[in-house]
Amino acid sequence: MTMKEILFVLVPLFCAATVFSQDMESLRSRAETMYAASYNLDLDAVVEATYPKLFELTNKETMKQTMARVFNNETMVITFNNPKTEFKYSAIKTIDNRKFALVEYLNSMNMNLTSAVDAELAQTMADGLKRSGNYTTVIYDEKSNKILAEGPAIMIAIADDLTNNQWMFINYDPKVFVRLFPESLKKELGL
Description:
By secondary structure, the chain is an alpha+beta fold. The chain has one domain: Nuclear Transport Factor 2, Chain: A (Roll). Helices cover 43% and strands 26% of the residues. Strands 1, 2, 3, 4, 5, 6 and 7 form a seven-stranded antiparallel sheet that branches. β6 and β7 form a beta hairpin.
């Protein structure tokens, strides 16, 4: 094999590895930024990092208002427990001119209940969280009037023409997912 033939084979492989590295590097950076925005309840930043197709189902302002009401209302204030978390990244897949990756992490939050919530209602809320299947740990602490909920979570990272090929995210929810993408995509992504 001549040096020219060796370079002909190695240069494209090197370029492909460099592009993949940049994609994974940008994915990691953007996922950490999204997680930090969520942890800090920076709703403007969360909305700006959300995959734009979601806004065909709701507009940005409605989404921000809904998130604000969920996280801080007359019944509870929700806070996240882990300022940093470890992410597990899937391989990046290109499907129909879109790049996808799954970002798995542990979602851990406290639901700090108001004094108006009695122990019976709090236990009902905790039982509902358990039945949802989204949390592996749900503990109601009557003394502190808090519910700890923890479980695996998945963000779907998407980069395409809508995002100017920048990674943006949606939290995986099967009902929302099928409103945005074909059902067959779930299998391709391993969901």
